[in-house]
Specification:
Blueprint (H helix, E strand, L loop, with lengths): L1 E4 L2 E4 L2 E3 L3 E4 L6 H7 L1 H8 L3 H10 L3 E7 H4 L8 H16 L3 E7 L15 H14 L5 E4 L10 H9 L1 E2 L9 E2 L2 H10 L6 E4 L1 H4 L15 E5 L12 H6 L7 E6 L16 H12 L4 E5 L31 H9 L13
Parallel strand pairs: 4-5, 4-13, 5-6, 6-7, 7-10, 10-11, 11-12, 12-13
Antiparallel strand pairs: 1-2, 2-3, 8-9
Helix pairs in contact: 1-2
């Protein structure tokens, strides 16, 4: 059973630092992935016992399933009953294999949506009502209520994030934002026993200024996605998640650091900032979640195969690779030591 005690997650009553990776192959329907995201489709068609065994060998004890908000909602034109059934079956298979599972609600282009809503909406609520009916009593399933709210941090946006209200963003298909506080209260009222995970603002970059979400069960965790986004600047880490981690339980539940990637190292010519980030998180007792395990080139080189990506062969003139080996080393040592650049090879 997963819980929260003070600033940390617990597993069966003991302090727990999860070792999670993303399963991205269920972020949209198979048809959408095949047509629009072939790398992710590779993950979808290879999900099964071999992949679950590979994730365990990688050191993961938790799988973060990205799921499509519109394709789960019977009121959406993108609803797909077969997709919904496949999500339920995949999660149950992972639980039967011994993994903790996080369900991460996605409402963006990758999930089949034509745009995105900056905050949770009534559609989010409908999906969580249904998921609570299926998984609400399973303390080994965590609910990440809304992936990467996009607005930048501000007092007004934090209030929308927490309590809901009218959303004035020009690209919002639903102008009414649902706050994390009423959503948590609603799901508790429907019997959910699960740990709730709430993402920070700025596409999940920051928890600076985040209001505390009240929960009668005391099972709320605050998530950041500390991607480098092409920058070696470490000066914001204290503000964005280090200082918040002294006040609330924080989980960096999605991260990778690929050269040439917009959300990774971009045009940087070395990966020292990736090593520094892992050590910073470890020193601040913030657990880490690796990125997609089932998409070639992120945590793993090939699918199937699932060998960790690394930075072997990377040079300043030809930077290549990603952070799979770093994350693998962190996991198999169970956060037991600081990492060095050599651990990324």
């Amino acid at each position: 059973m997963v819980g929260v005690s003070g600033l940390h997650l617990t597993l069966n009553g003991q302090t727990w630092f999860p070792r999670s990776v993303v399963i991205r192959g269920f972020v949209a329907t198979a048809a959408y992935l095949q047509a629009s995201l072939p790398g992710t489709y590779t993950g979808r068609v290879n999900y099964g016992p071999a992949e679950l065994a590979a994730a365990a060998a990688f050191g993961a004890d938790t799988l973060r399933f990205q799921v499509s908000q519109p394709s789960l909602d019977p009121q959406s034109p993108l609803y797909d009953a077969a997709y919904s059934a496949s999500v339920t079956a995949a999660i149950k298979q992972a639980r039967a294999a011994g993994f903790v599972v996080m369900i991460s609600m996605q409402d963006e282009t990758n999930s089949g949506e034509t745009g995105f809503n900056p905050f949770a909406t009534a559609e989010t609520v409908r999906d969580w009502d249904a998921l609570t009916a299926t998984f609400g009593a399973d303390r080994g399933v965590l609910f990440e209520l809304y992936n990467e709210p996009r607005p930048a941090k501000s007092d007004a946006n934090w209030q929308l994030w927490a309590n809901g209200g009218t959303n004035t963003a020009a690209n919002a298909s639903d102008p009414v934002a649902v706050g994390m506080q009423p959503l948590v209260a609603r799901l508790r009222g429907k019997g959910s026993q699960n740990v709730m995970v709430v993402d920070g603002l700025g596409i999940g970059r920051t928890l600076d200024g985040a209001p505390t979400i009240a929960d009668p069960l005391g099972r709320v965790v605050y998530a950041v996605h500390p991607y480098q986004r092409g920058s070696a600047d470490e000066s914001n880490w204290d503000t964005d998640f280090g200082i918040p981690s002294t006040k609330m339980p924080v989980w960096a539940d999605e991260w990778s650091a690929g050269f040439g990637s917009d959300i990774g190292l971009g045009s940087l010519t070395n990966y020292q900032v990736a090593v520094d980030l892992i050590n910073y998180l470890r020193n601040h007792q913030i657990p880490l979640g690796g990125g997609a395990f089932d998409v070639p080139g992120v945590m793993t080189q090939t699918v199937p195969g699932w060998v960790p990506t690394d930075y072997d062969g990377s040079t300043p003139s030809s930077p290549v690779g990603n952070s799979g080996q770093l994350v693998h080393t962190l996991f198999i040592t169970n956060y037991g030591r600081a990492l060095t650049a050599a651990d990324g090879l």
